Amino acid sequence: MGIVGIGIVPFRPMTPEYSWKEIMYEAASRAYEDAGVDPRADVGSFITCAEDYWEGFGIFDEFTPDQIGAVLRPACTVTGDGIQGLAQGVLQIQAGLADIVAVEAHSKISDLLTYEGVVRHALDPIWNKPLGGHPYYVAGLEMAAYLRASRVTETDCASVVAKNRRNALTNDRAAYGARIEADDVLASPPISTPLKSLDVAPLADTAVVLVLAADARARKLSSEPVWVRGVGWTSDSPWLETRSWRTAQYAQDAAAIAYRMAKVRNPRQEVDVAEVDDKFSYKEPQHLEAVGLAKKGDTAKAIRRGDFGLGGKLPVNPSGGSLGCGNVIEASGLHRAAEVVLQLRGQAGRNQVDGARVGLAASWRGVPTATGAVAVLGVGR
Amino acid sequence: MRKVACIGAGMTLFRRRLQETPKELCWEASRMALDAAGLTIDDIDAVVFGSAPDAFDGIHMKGENVLDGCGGRRKPYVRVFTGGGTGVFSPIAAYWHVASGMFDCVLVVNEEKMSSCQPHAQSVFGHIWDPILDRPLKPNLVWIFAMEMNRYMTVHKVRYEDVAAVAVKNKRNAVGHPCAQLADPNITVEDVMNSEMMAWPVRRLDISPPSDGASALVIASEDFVKKHKVESPVWFSGVGWNIDTTWWTDRDLYFPEYLANAARMAYKQARIDRPRKQIDFAEPYDPFDYKELHHMEGLLLCGKGEAPTLTREGVTQRDGDLPTCPSGGLLGVGNPIAATMGIKVGELYWQLSGQAGKRQIPREIRTGVTNAWGDLMQFSSVVVMRA
User: Fold this and answer.
1) Whole-structure pTM value
2) Mean pLDDT per segment of 10 residues, for chain B of length 387 residues?
3) Chain B, 349-378: which have a CB under 8 Å from a chain A CB?
4) ipTM confidence score
5) What is the largest CA-CA distance in chain B?
6) Do the Cβ atoms of A235 and B67 come within 8 Å?
7) Dihedral sign, Cα of residue B362, residue B37, residue B209, residue B240
C-alpha cells in the first residue's frame, strides 16, 4: 500500500490559539487536500494515536471523530506511537477492511502542566515510582550504560545534538533550529549524569495525519505514491530491571520484522535516508545500531566522519529530528515517517537528500517504555 | 481474505481482586486461554491488549505496564482503545492481525481493575466530558444513561417492568457462569423495581456492577487451525465498528445509529441480509438493562421499539427463539469494562464450540452476534461468528 497524503502542522513550543481539536483538524485538512480524498466519502477507517494521560481525559477516544471527518464511520484509538498506528492501518488494508485509512497523531503537550508527574506515573507503581526523582533518570542510566558498552562518547552525543538542531534551521516545520556546537551541549547543566539538558529534545505541539491507500487506489490517487514496504513494532520488557540497557532491543526486533516484509537484506546499502528517534541525543546512535544502519563499534567513527550529516554517506534525521523539531510524544514516529515521505517525493526543500529512493523511520515511545516501531518506505520499482 | 478463527478462551473470576495486580490478572487469563488452546506463549506471533481508561489502574501507558503479563515481551504488541467498546474491539484488532496474512496466531488480552480507584470507579468518569460545556455540570454516567433510558422509554412507550425483565433474565442466566459476580436464581422484577433509585428511571439493579478481571482469546488463521488439528474452531464471519459525533447532546438518543452502521459493516462481510432469520443467538452489550433492548434494535435483530415485546414474550430466554445474553451478560457476570470480552466474544466462542456447560443453548446453533458500546454513548463494535 501507499502513502498518498500527508499533513503536518508546523511545530511550536506552545499553541495557545489552537484547541486539540483545531490542531487535529488542520493536519487532517492538509492531508486530505494533499491526497485528493474526501474523508466523508473515501476514507474507510480512521486511527488516532493517543494516551489518556497526555490528553487529560478519562476516555480520549470520545473526542476524536468530528475534527478528522470520522463521524458515523469506523474509527478507533491506538494507544501508541504513530508508526504503531500506521502499522494497524497497513493491517486493516491487507485484511480488506478498508481501502483508504487515515492515521492521526498529535501533541498538545503544552496544555499539560505536570509533564514530569505524568511520565513518573508510567513507572511501575510498586517498584520504581516510589523512588522519586525526575523520571529522566532512566535515560541518564541508559545513556551511561550505552556509552560504557560502545565507543561512543559524550562528545559524540553532543555532536548529534549540534547536527540535528542545525538541520532544523532549514526545516520550516521545526521549532528548535539553532546553530550550536558540541561544546555548548557539553557545557549545559546536567539532568542525570551523563545526560545534560541540551541532550534532551524539548517538547513541542503539532498534529500529523497520513493517508494510506491500497495499491490500486494509491496508483489512481497519485502519480508517484510512497510505498510502505515494511512495518514492524515490538516491545522489550516493561521492567527497568530486566530489559536490555545497551542495545535498543525493541528497535532491533521491530526492524527485523520490517526488513523481512520489505525484503531488505542489507540495510546499510539499501536505505538512503533515515529518521530515527532522538528524544535523547544518545538514542540516535543507539537506534542506528539497533536497526542495522550503523555497525556496533564503528558508530563513533562514523559520527566523527560526518556520515550521518546532510550530504554524508547516510543522512540521519535531515528534518532535525526530535532534538531540532521538538519532542511531540506519540506523534514523533508519524512525523518522522511523513518527513521520509517528503524526502522520497523530493519535497524536502533545502534538506533534500539527493536521489533518495528508500527511507526508514524508527520510533520509540520514550521514558520509561521499551517499545518502538519501524517503517521502511520506498518509491519506484 | 484469510479465514480467521477463535481457538481458545480464558477468563478470570469477576470480583474485587485486591490480591492481584493488573499484570497478574492478565497473566491468569492469558494462561487459561493458552491452556484451552493447548498452546504455549512461544506459539503466539503477536499480542493485542485492550483496556479502558488508564485512570482505573492509575498507571500512565498501562498497556506498557502489563505487556509482559500478556506475553508481549519481544513480540509485536499493541493496545487499542475505544472506551467501553474495547471489549469487542480488541478481538477485531486481533482479527485484522491474522486476516492481513502477517501473523498466524495472535493472543488478545483484555483487563480492567476498577477497585483500585477510590472512592469509586465513577470518579474516573468525571474526566470523560467536554471540559468547557459538560464538566462544569458535574455529570456522571448513571445520570446520562438515565437520560438515554428515559428517551428510549418515552419514544417507544416502554413500560419499566419490560426493561427490568432484562436484568432478571440476565442475572438468572448468570447462575451457570463460573466467573459470575451477581448471579441470582430467585431474583424477580419486583426486586429490581424496589431497588434503590439512582437517577430516575435507573435503579440500582438496572446497572451492572463495577468489577476487576481479565479475559483472553487465541485467534488463529485457517492454516494454523489445520496444522494444529484444532477440534472446534469458531470462525469470524464479520466485523464492524463505528463512532458517532462527540456532541451527544445533539443526537436523538432513542436509537444507536452508530451501532446500526457497525452491524451493517459486519453483516455485509458475513453475507447476512436478514439478521433476525440468519442469526441464532446474540450477546448484545448490557451494562444497563435498557441497553440490551437498545442494542438488539441497533443490531437490527428486531424493529425499533420491538425488543421489549420480544423480551416479554420470552423470545430472548435461553430456550427461546433468539437467546440473548445466555452468558448472563454484564448484569449478571459483572462489568470490568474491557474484560467483558470474555462474556461477549468469549461466550460466542464457548456457545458455538459447545463448551458453554450449564449455559449451553439447548438446540443447534450456528451463528452468533455480539457488540460492545463505549465512549460518550457514541461507539460500537460488532462481531459475527459461526461454528
Assistant:
1) 0.98
2) 95 94 97 98 98 91 97 98 98 98 98 90 89 90 94 98 98 96 96 96 96 97 97 97 95 97 98 98 98 98 98 97 98 97 98 97 98 96 98
3) 374-376, 378
4) 0.97
5) 58
6) yes
7) negative
